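When time allows, look over one protein, given below as sequence and C-alpha cells. The question is which stretches look regular and which look disordered:
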Amino acid sequence: MLVAVANHLPPAVRGRMKLWFVEPRPNVFVSGVKDSVADGVVEYLLDHCPPESGLILFQRSNKPPGYKIRGLGDHTRALVEISGLQLVQEKNGLLAK
C-alpha cells in the first residue's frame, strides 16, 4: 500500500497519479500497487514534484513498524527518526533535545 499526501501537485503529476491512486479526499492519495511497482511510483513522484508540493509518502514495509515515510519540500509537520522509528512530529521543537 502506498499513501501520498501533498499540499499542491503540478497538473501533469496529478494526472499521472490517477493511474495508480484513488483520491478519497483532496490531496490525499491511496494506492494498492504491488511493492515492486510502488518503488517506481515513489521515485517518479520524488523526481517530478517540486519542493512546494509538500509531498509526504507512506509506503508499506516488511520491517517494523510496517511502513516507511519519505518526504519532499515544505511540510507543516516534520519527519523525525528516533531509534530507527520514523515519526511525524506534531509541532516543531516538541520532541527536540
